[in-house]
Specification:
- With 331 residues, this protein is an alpha/beta fold.
- Helices cover 37% and strands 14% of the residues.
- The strands form three sheets. It has a seven-stranded parallel β-sheet. A two-stranded antiparallel sheet has the order 1-2.
- The protein starts with a strand and ends in a 7-residue tail after the last helix.
- The mean pLDDT is 94.
């Protein structure tokens, strides 16, 4: 397995990570035995950069990942996140990142993960009520205390990223980035690179859409959160299927799967990019790892750009884009 560096603080990770969110909820039925086997197979393949968050479950995903790596903690680079809070209302999402909560959330994650340190600790979303300097300052105290090794942020605007990095060194920025989500290329990616911050694309396969396995909305489980996503609804869904058809043609010409083409495109964006495709199945994990062996030449990249330019996907990424922007949604 290749390794890549995130940031300038010394964090080295496998060139591909594993997003563990779907092992807890959101993407239909879960199978704990298969999810456990998937994590263990990932480690065997050298995919040792594991990503979770306290909000997944909530809390149960951290507990599961902690159990999965209990006897091999030293083999993995463990990332988790805090800052999104949930309530008894399953639809509610709030934001909290005051210094007291930073410390409280970290202690709770350490306990659930069954470890005494977190390799990469992300602020999941900015809290509009708290200056980013206060939040990151408290996160830096966790580094000084030895409870966290490196700091990260998720879904931050360029200005927020700059202010955060001026407070304490940020090693990684996790944001949605894929062939159908390219908006961060305008300001966020250049700012991260100016500051020496590594890029960790989540949903690099467009929440599974770019795999080509979702042909109808009915292919999704009744409780799958993607049913409420604008990109999976109405005319947007058909327009995105048309986009996918063109991606499939390019993949076939390279004798690779659409998922492998989409991941290879991200790798070609720079050696500071480490995507974390999520899966709870070993066969899809192994397919994703195969993308590391796909080489895209300049003509390939030009054709991909023609097929999937910025803004090609139809519909917003989330039903509530105000929340992604760091604004508390209505209760």
């Amino acid at each position: 397995m290749q390794t890549r560096r995130l940031g300038n603080q010394g964090l080295a990770v496998s060139a591909q990570g594993l997003g563990c969110m779907g092992m807890a909820e959101f993407y239909g039925p879960t199978d704990e035995a298969e999810s456990l086997a998937t994590i263990h197979r990932a480690i065997e393949l050298g995919v040792t950069f594991l990503d979770t968050a306290d909000v997944y479950g909530p809390h149960t995903n951290e507990e599961f990942v902690g159990r999965a790596i209990a006897d091999r903690r030293h083999e993995v680079v463990l990332a988790t996140k805090f800052g999104i809070v949930r309530s008894a209302d399953p639809a509610y999402r709030g934001l909290r990142a005051d210094p007291a909560y930073v410390r409280q959330a970290c202690e709770a994650s350490l306990r659930r993960l069954g470890t005494d340190y977190i390799d990469l600790y992300y602020l999941h979303r900015a809290d509009p009520k708290v200056p980013i300097e206060d939040t990151v300052g408290a996160m830096a105290e966790l580094v000084a205390a030895g409870k966290v090794r490196f700091l990260g942020l998720s879904e931050m605007a360029a200005d927020t990223l700059r202010r955060a990095h001026a407070t304490a060194p940020i090693s990684a920025l996790q944001s949605e980035w894929s062939l159908w989500s390219r908006d961060i290329e305008d300001e966020v990616v250049p700012t991260a690179r100016e500051l020496g911050i590594g890029l960790v694309p989540y949903s690099p396969l467009g929440r599974g859409f770019l795999t080509g396995r979702i042909r109808r909305v009915e292919d999704l489980a009744p409780d799958d959160f993607r049913r409420a996503s604008p990109r999976f609804q109405g005319d947007n869904f058909q327009r995105n299927l048309d986009l996918l058809a063109r991606v499939r043609e390019l993949a076939a010409a390279k004798a690779v799967t659409p998922a492998q083409l989409a991941l290879a495109w991200l790798y070609a964006q720079g050696d500071d990019v480490v995507p974390i495709p999520g899966t709870k199945h070993r066969r899809y994990l192994e397919e994703n790892v195969g993308a590391l062996n796909v080489t895209l030449e300049a003509p390939d990249l030009r054709r991909i750009e023609e097929v999937a330019p910025k803004g090609a996907a139809a519909g917003d990424r989330y039903a509530n884009m105000a929340f992604v922007a760091g604004k508390t949604p209505p209760r």
